[in-house]
Amino acid sequence: MSSLIGKVVFITGASSGIGAACARVFAGQGAVLVLTARRHARLTTLASELSAKYQTRCFSGELDVRQQPQVEQFVNNLPPEFASIDILINNAGLSRGLDPLFDGELEDWEEMLDTNVKGLLYVTKAILPGMLVRQSGHIINIGSIAGRQVYPSGNVYCASKFAVRALTQGLLIDLVNTPIRVTEVDPGMVETEFSLVRFRGDAERAAQTYRGLTPLKPNDIAEVVLFAATRPAYVNISEVVVLPTDQASVYHANRK
Ligand code: NDP
Ligand code: 8X3
Predict the structure, then answer these.
(1) Which of 140, 160, 186, 217 is 20 to 30 A from 167 via CA?
(2) Cβ of residue 115 lying under 6 Å from some atom of ligand 1
(3) Tens of pLDDT, residues 41-70
(4) Residue-wise pLDDT tens digits, 196-235
(5) Which domains are assigned to the chain?
(6) What pLDDT sits at residue 1?
């Protein structure tokens, strides 16, 4: 296992779910963290927890990945000890609504595509040049099984995750002549705030997503991300699908 001690890990969407779990597992391995999301208060709380538990050096900042100039400025103005990013975890993402395409809301479509696709591109574009100069780095994108199969009313969310998959594959090809690694981790159902966000705070409807089955926990995904990040430099885990045992595909779940 390659050491993460002192490696700088930049995480988008670290205020909740999979992103926060990644922060915890990487902190446990001695990494230095840049925690970003829009809800800065949550990041401050997480940073205090990690510094008390692991003496982690954390820099946290409010960042909306949809705002390209803000992303560029944020990355270019990181304090020197956090500026040489070794690992980027492109995790920020969301779904809005679950409706047939013809009933979809324009603003929901914009939000999903702006966050999941353009946001990932903006952050990558801001961070990758430094990795190229240093000839070192690892970009880990959180995709989804929704980027491999389309489910009813999943239309635009699925399209955004299919795009993440295409971008991961494109990056992998474009970076083949460099030591920079590119990984995509595609989870099935993980119990986070994802469904609460999708259904705009309707907790009862969100809970239905995981009804009668045992979903993954955010930490299950974080451990897979950690595994990919700690392989020897000549090994690239290019893609991993992680499902709950109770889920076989977007269409097949074992609900009791
Ligand atoms: P959560 O809702 O718990 O976390 C989503 C994170 O994304 C939050 O930290 C949120 O932070 C951040 N985020 C959303 N919009 C923006 C934005 N515009 N700028 C910056 N950060 C943003 O959900 P998950 O942890 O489940 O989701 C993480 C990733 O995992 C997403 O890409 C999702 O698509 C993917 N995924 C989730 C699955 C699941 O079943 N939960 C399955 C497969 C993939 P804030 O609101 O503070 O900005
Ligand atoms: C989240 C997984 O299947 O609920 O990406 O869309 S799913």
Answers:
(1) 217
(2) yes
(3) 999 999 999 999 999 999 999 999 999 999
(4) 999 999 999 999 999 999 999 999 999 999 999 999 999 9
(5) 8-187+222-240 (3.40.50.720)
(6) 84
Protein residue with least CA distance to atom 7, ligand 2: 146
Distance 137 CA to ligand 2 centre (A): 28
Give the model confidence (pLDDT) of 232-249 as tens digits: 999 999 999 999 999 999
Contact 115, 63 (CB under 8 A): no
